[in-house]
Structure prediction request, 685 residues.
Amino acid sequence: MQRSCLKKGMMFSITKHITLRDGSFFLNNEKATKIEEGANFKEISKKLYQSLEVDYPKFYKMDNLSKTAFLSSELLLGAHTFNCEEEKIGLFISNKASSLETDEAYYSKTFGEDEFQANPALFVYTLPNIMMGELCIRHKIKGEQSMWVSDNLDATFVSKYVNLLYSEKLIESAIVGWIDFYKDEPEVMLCLVENNTDNQAIAFNEKNLINIYQRLKS
Amino acid sequence: MNTISIVADNIFSPLGGSTASNIEAILKGDSGIKRHAATDKLPFDYCGAKISDDQFAKASEDHKIDSSYTCLESMCIASISQAINETALDLSSSEVGFIISTTKGNIDLLKENDKNIKGKYLYHFASRISKHFNNANKPVVISNACISGVLAIITAKRLLSIGDYKHIVVLGADLISDFTLSGFYALKAMSPDPCKPFDKNRTGINLGEAASCIILSTETKSELPIQVHGGASSNDANHISGPSRTGAGMISVIKSSFGQVEGFQKDKIDFISAHGTGTLYNDEMEAKAISNFDLNRTPINSFKGYFGHTLGAAGILESILTYHSLLRNTLFASKGFSESGTSEEINVLSKHVEKENLNWALKTASGFGGCNAAILFKKRNDV
Amino acid sequence: MEEIIEKLKIQLIDQLNLEDLEPSDLDSDEPLFGSKLGLDSIDALEIIVLLEREHGIKVLNQEDGKKIFKSIRSIAEHISAHKV
Prediction:
């Protein structure tokens, strides 16, 4: 039986967060990794992947959205181990473009030329929650999850919903945020939310979520 | 948590534009699934459940839906309009929220290249629906593969318990499109024949299109004495397009749903409405998950033999039929099933059965990305 | 046969996004599936697409695929035997 971490004095807090802006990843507001230039995202993401020195060849099969998600979560989590059961780790991601980037690539490849040609390996990425599936496989995340699509992060809804799951003891940790990719532009804001006794930790609430998200947009 | 009840519902599918007409068709054994011959664009024969142009035209006329709305938007508006017909609900009220479940939205707009870019965004589509009913709240859009519908009901239940809304319109919709047909064909997941969920000779899915809605409420006075209980989602963390062979993720959501109802005994389950897509792997996994709870003798069906797999609409459409089974004390046949084809034997309904005292039903779903969801419906016996 | 095998290795690396690999890294006789290459059912479907597009060979279902796709050499032999 796994130990529960819901002891007194603990707060559901953002213990780490990462945003991608101005060509760099910022971890907890400190510039962490600059994105090397490249001819296209395939090249850029390959350089970043290689710099991480992880052995995960499946990365190359992913679409741009999933690659963005993978790289961001590697930088966010590093060697982090969750302090609760896999089934209590939640994953809640929003974006604006859904899987439109890959949808368009799949459509033009399948119907664009003279002859019909459908690639199953591309089709499987034409759903926005597939990037979540990739993160779940990589980090063994098996709990409550949801993929939401909105113009901007709906911090009011997201914070209330995720906090409800926490109060109902359906989750004990979570990754919450925004991962988007369209027309060669990735957008990332991801928060690691856990039980924490650190007084300095950022409470997981609407105000703090908006503050971190808005840095992405500034 | 407040008890969450159901005020109204609707199914808009090839079998009709109302829940009643769909149930009538099911009782007759009709199916919306038809054979379609190969074309230049889609060079393969397939079976699918398409809504006719006539049905779209009639719905647009009946509900005064103007031509600026896409096919998908028209059927969504028709579905919601039909549902609220018999109610006094004012959807423009700030106490009403919208949750919309769709996997591909207006995917047919892709062929227009860069025209109508806004229309391709799922959120834009969802806003068009809620704004049509003069609702100013931001709709929540869930796009979580084939669990989207069940997850939308779960999300509505949770949002209602927070208290910001009194009523939530949960809508699910997807089109049958060249896009998805080609993709499932590429995955070799489509059966060239009408699908046979759980059957020994099953060879894959059929796709279908539908719009379906349920209006959930914290007010218990309602025509439909059904309560929503439990509700959970999970991930197998195993493969992005195939389910876990052990059914671990499905087991997890069923266990969580049961655990959320105080003192719940699994033998209370009178009926299971499975995801039952008709693929070798999904149906095998579900049978394993059901067997894990020793519910092998509990009547189980899949509705996909009547509608095909309606993706974002599936969880909502099939949930409606699930609780109407409880209300009618009627279990519907799992169309397409004749001989058991899973390693764990389960009690698949081969014909319609009238059965007294049906009170609790379990609805399950699973989808690409390794996701799973489950929810419970209970008939209120205090009316 | 060796020529077909070498060409096939290049095609497989491209089709299956085996980005960090060179043709010399692929063993012609090693089992393709269940090996360190980590190929899965989607990769099997992609090989079917490759055979149809590049070699005009139709593999009708995954069951047939399992037999043909034992190794790169077995695929090459199948191509050689069924060349259109």
Strands of chain A lie at 11-21, 24-27, 30-34, 89-95, 145-149, 173-182, 185-196, 202-203. Residues 64-77 of chain A form the longest helix (14 residues). The interface with chain C takes residues 46, 57-58, 60-61, 117-121, 124 of chain A (CB under 8 Å).
